[in-house]
Amino acid sequence: MPKAVDPNAPSGLVVVDKPQGITSHDVVSRMRRLAGTRKVGHAGTLDPMATGVLLVGVNKATRLLTYLVGQDKVYEATIRLGETTSTEDAEGEILQRRYVAAVTRQALDAAVEALTGDIQQVPSAVSAIKVDGKRSYQRVRDGEEVELPARPVTIKRFEILDVRRPEGGRTMDVDVVVECTSGTYIRALARDLGEALSVGGHLTALRRTSVGGFGLDKAATLEELAERFEMLPLPEAARGLFPARELTAEEVNELGFGRRIEANATAELTAGFAPDGRLIALMNNVKDKAKPELVFETR
Q1: CA 287 to CA 234: how far, in whole Å?
Q2: Residues 121, 123, 129, 134: is their CA dihedral positive or negative?
Q3: CA of 224: how far to CAs of 27, 31, 34, 144, in Å?
Q4: CB 200 within 8 A of CB 84
Q5: What is the DSSP letter of 168?
Q6: Position 7 pLDDT exceeds 90
Q7: DSSP annotation of 147
Q8: Pairing between strand 51-58 and 12-18?
Q9: pLDDT tens-digit profile of 171-211?
Q10: What would the pLDDT profile of 226-248 be if each residue is shown by its tens digit?
Q11: Nearest 5°: phi and psi at 137?
């Protein structure tokens, strides 16, 4: 059972290296016990099959999570060409097998290039997207046919690292690295690559290596956290995610009342810090002023 909530418990961000075989919610449950508070959440769900960077907010840092979801992400993945599955990953039932012998490296490179940049992607039907109030994956489990509309995403980098032909060449495994905007489904990318080559495809491995400015070099496993629980203090976490602005005492006071101040130097969401280093607010430019979107401290 989680410890009683300590109202004075510190706030911060924990960069977790999620293991395979558990859900993101399972990670949150464990973090509640380790942090001694129920006020814990995560940004950017990873499927049980996937591993890697999962950002977890504790106490006040949970208020950052809405803004963390939109950060760019980098993945390392393995796509198996020649097999289509019911879930578009290795956990699903194989629905169809097709020969890959005719797939050349030139054709593979061309298909990857066509899926790079600004594209329209149809999310996986087994995603957590809600359709009329019900998760799409639940509708699929209930036997419904689900067709989700395409949505714009940007694949900033789609690079082939290695190509192998296991099982006597009946299938083709392609190791890739993908840098993409929020809302991109890597299993859908695997599906679309396979269809572009007319052989089908699905995801067999997925590891998220970074979210925004936080990579695996800053991540800790659940075992490491159980031995020594540490988190990035809220100000340090914000500096790693957003452009920073040093505020005057007068600006801190104005923001504490929800008032606008002189515009930020950038159009991006900006974190404002008090002279003593405290995180005061996240701000966006609106016309010629910086408007507080989220205030953490009022004085």
Answers
A1: 28
A2: positive
A3: 13, 12, 11, 42
A4: yes
A5: G
A6: no
A7: -
A8: antiparallel
A9: 999 999 999 998 899 999 999 999 999 999 999 999 999 99
A10: 999 999 999 999 998 899 999 99
A11: -65, -30
Q: Which residue has the tokens 């019911």?
A: 86
**Tokens (6 digits) for 218:** 């800053």
Could you tell me the two tokens for 186? 């890597």
Rounded to 5 degrees, φ, ψ at 281 are: -165, 160
Q: How far apart are CA 53 and CA 16, in angstroms?
A: 6
* Length of the chain, in residues: 299
Q: Give the separation between CA 205 and CA 49, rounded to whole angstroms.
A: 7
Q: Give all domains of the chain, ordered by start, each with its CATH number.
A: 12-71+212-235 (3.30.2350.10), 73-211 (3.30.2350.10), 242-295 (2.30.130.10)
Question: What is the spatial distance between Cα 168 and Cα 136, in angstroms, rounded to a whole number?
Answer: 36
Structure tokens at 88: 């578009």
User: Of 166, 219, 181, which Cα lies nearest the Cα of 54?
Assistant: 219
Is 289 buried (19+), middle (13-18) or exposed (0-12) by CB count in 10 A?
Answer: middle
Q: What is the dihedral of CA 158, 162, 163, 164, to 10 degrees?
A: -140
Question: Which amino acid is it at 285?
Answer: N
Catalytic residue numbers, as ranges = 47
Q: What tokens does 56 get?
A: 């977890």
Amino acid at residue number 161 = L
Closest CA to 129 of 147, 144, 143: 147
User: Angle of helix 105-114 relative to helix 186-196, nearest 10 degrees?
Assistant: 130
The first and second tokens of residue 203, run together, are 């995801």
* Of 221, 212, 210, residue with least CA distance to 239: 212
Residues 5 and 147: their CA atoms lie apart, in Å, by 43
